[in-house]
Structures are given as structure tokens and as C-alpha cells.
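User: Assemble these into one structure.

Assistant: Restating your components, then the assembled model:
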Amino acid sequence: MQTGLTGKTALVTGASRGIGRAAAFALAAEGANVVLTSRRQESLDAVAAEIRAAYPVGVLAKAAHVGEPEQAAAAVEATVAEFGGVDILVNNAGTNPYFGPMVDLDVPRAEKTVQVNQLSIVLWTQTAWYAGKMSERGGSIVNIASVGGLVTELGIGYYNATKAAVVHLTRQFAAELAPKVRVNAIAPGIVRTQLARALWENHEEMLNGHIPLGRIGEPEDIAQAITFLAGDTSSWMTGQTLVIDGGAVIRPALSSNF
Ligand SMILES: NC(=O)c1ccc[n+]([C@@H]2O[C@H](COP(=O)([O-])OP(=O)(O)OC[C@H]3O[C@@H](n4cnc5c(N)ncnc54)[C@H](OP(=O)(O)O)[C@@H]3O)[C@@H](O)[C@H]2O)c1
């Protein structure tokens, strides 16, 4: 089955690097116009130039802090002015400002984690639905959660709590926006990006030994699943979270007697 993404318009948050950048390339490769957002215009302009050089699609780069409603509105308005509306929204931007036991978490960093990882999903979905005309055009929303939102991990507990919220926001929006718009999520395991650098740098060999498929993820591993969920390829699917982690969560327990 074809993705049916040719001529559609996909808005990707956190598109300046990592998973969001790879998603923008993958969507453009399928023929979608792409709108790139993140905080730094310069980084976005560089990615936009690379995509324009590689694919004959429309590309718009518009800086926006993902947690600020008026900046979300400005990015979606610019999308409507350039392409007529939003068909695909990839809520990808994320942050983790705090490492440590949750019992010691401070309020400013807790609030920032919620604003960027969790509230942003609501803001950009609302804005794309109304101002971006997804309510009329239909389409697909892909939220980036984390496998950490499904399990417990020491050190990044509050980040993971916001990712568990993303899994539930995905179900709730899927129920509210059906049948016009499908809403699904991806829960990646450890992927080679700047955000996760502390988790994989200097530990890669050890991690590879713990992952059934023998390696950490690359941004492109997640980008391919984003195009699957964005396009007609997943047309009978909504409210679900796809785990893409090299098999890390299904690793047999060490206590096995076999
Ligand atoms: N890498 C992993 O192992 C992993 C695993 C599970 C889930 N994830 C999730 O995957 C998503 C993408 O992360 P990544 O790993 O690709 O990280 P990354 O390479 O560090 O990229 C993060 C992106 O988000 C943007 N961003 C950060 N804060 C922002 C804000 N306040 N407003 C707007 N944009 C903002 C960054 O651009 P600017 O700094 O220029 O704003 C950048 O484009 C995140 O939701 C993350 O939680 C990652």
C-alpha cells in the first residue's frame, strides 16, 4: 500500500535535529510538503535547505517554542498561508532538564518537562485542528512518547511520567477526533540523538548487549514508523502506541531457569 502522502502538508515539531529531522526527510521523500519548527530559526533554515536540495517538495521553516500557545498559532498560521492547512502533525519536540531521583525534583524543572513534553501535545493538536483546518481536511497526528512511559527507570522518572501522559493523550485525542483525524504514538527505546547522549555515549557496547536486536536505534528507525502512522498505510489504526526499541522491553528476565 502507498502512504498517500504526496501533496499533503506535514508539520513536525523539534525538526532541527534527531528524530524530528529524520522524520521531515522521510515525509518529504514520500512527497509531503514539510513545515519545520523548533526554537532556533538558523538550525531550521539549514535543515530546510538540505531537504529542498534532496526532494521537490515545499519546505517552510518557522521557529516556535513548543510550549507557547501564541508561537504554535503563528507556526500554524504560516503553514495555512503557505500550503492551505495541516494534514499531518508530528508532535516530536521533547526535553529532559532533570536527571536524578524524583523525590528530589524541583518545581521549575518539573514545570518545564510538563510544558514541553505534555502540554505541547494539547496545544499543537488544538491549533492544528482549528486554525490548521484538520477538522475539515482530516489527517493523522503522530505523537512521540517513549518506552520509558511504559516501564520504570531510575534517574528519568518525571520525564517518563510525561511520556506516559503522551500515551494517554494519544488515546484520548484519538477518541475525540475520530473519524476525521487518526492519532497514534511511537514509544522509542534508546536512539542515537543529542537528547539521549548521556544514555548511550560511553555505554554503547553494554547497551547493545542488552538489546535483543543488538544495537541502539538510529533516528531513521523511528522516522520510517512516523511515515507509516502518518499515511494511508495505517488507515485502520488510531489511539495506539507502537514500541520501537530493538526488543529492549521484551528482553527475557535474568532469573530464567532455562
Ligand atoms: N533519543 C531517544 O533515545 C528517545 C527515546 C524516546 C523518546 N524520545 C523522544 O523523541 C523526541 C525527539 O527527541 P530526539 O531524541 O530526537 O532529541 P534531539 O535530537 O535533542 O531533538 C530535540 C528537538 O526538539 C527541539 N526542542 C527542544 N525543546 C524545544 C522547545 N521548547 N520548543 C521547540 N522545540 C524544542 C530541539 O530543537 P531546539 O533545541 O532548536 O529547540 C530539537 O529539534 C522527544 O520527544 C524525545 O523525548 C527520544
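The chain has nine helices and seven strands.
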